[in-house]
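Recall from the previous lesson that a structure prediction takes nothing but the amino acid sequence as input. Here we apply that procedure to Cytochrome d ubiquinol oxidase subunit II from Helicobacter apodemus. The sequence below is the only information supplied.
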Amino acid sequence: MFFGLDLAQLQIYWWLIFSLLAGLLSFMFFVQGGQGMLFELAKNEEEKALIINSLGRKWELGFTTLVLFGGAAFAAFPLFYSTSFGGAYWVWLLILFCFILQAVSYEYRKKEGNLLGSKTYEIFLLLNGILGVFLIGVALSTFFSGANFTLDSHHFVSWVGSARGLEALLNPYNFLLGFALIFLSRILACGYFLNHIDEAIIRQRIIKKFTFNALLFLLFFLGFLFWIFTKEGFLMNADSTISLQKYLYLMNFLQIPLLMGIFLIGVLLALIGIFLGYKGHKKAIFALGLGSVLSVFALMASLGVGKSAFYPSFVDLQSSLTIYNASSSYYTLSVMGYVSLLVPFVLAYIIYVWSLMDRVKLTKKELQEQTHSY
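The prediction returns the following tokens.
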């Protein structure tokens, strides 16, 4: 028994943790954003090395967060894991491939005698920074648009069609979140570079890029919000059946003022971060980071805590997944609950190590003195 919580409360507890990991993952996309702007911000090899080494100190944190996100889905909501990761496997394999390219690139870009050359690995980083983030955005957008699966009485997954998740690319509305995440990652990267790289020329380029990417982020993010708040949602009725209801995702927020408040605070912080970045302020990343975490957390949390299916099926409404029919057993969630108490200590350790790494800002001189280079 985990602090006297019953099964329904544990399911909500773990959905909130899952949502928090999604928020933290969105913040860690600043690494991908920086990779996507590599050839825009760097005009020579020295500047390129400066940017890559700045990101190289943090890329493993983002990779670890992605693994934790998938691990939480597997442990707490195994039916979702088997349905999405097992059914829509082509899109998830592409995402995994993009992140493998990232890991290989940081490891081998400066290895002596590498066969592909530094330029190839830099293109791999660019691919991860744009395509990897876009595909994750499209995959998460299916939480609102629905996916192409059915479940039988034994919860065996049947995916309709051979595209195996790639059919989400045929729905242009899914692109809204994909592009929003790309431009969010880019403004987060700009904020991070302003805080971490102490070179005047690169700083000037960052500020110029910031405004353009911020405007595009707001365009796609507001478009995504308008779409989900006005579309038909997948309502979970009192008898656990699923039906369509217009404005459902907006009603989820209105009926849970706490989540709506968290979301609005997150949006406000993001706007403050955008303004600070426009002014070239070194602390912009903190407002942007916290704003992105809170906004994504609230959006994801509203799916599970609200009266909706968090992974709907548009070919068979009754196959849609909710936090109640897709979760692990009471015993599993309870045991994992005690493990989750270690999360604050892990976060504290990450913050401590991060502050140590960023105590000295990165310059061309400091880079030349490093014994290890990415």
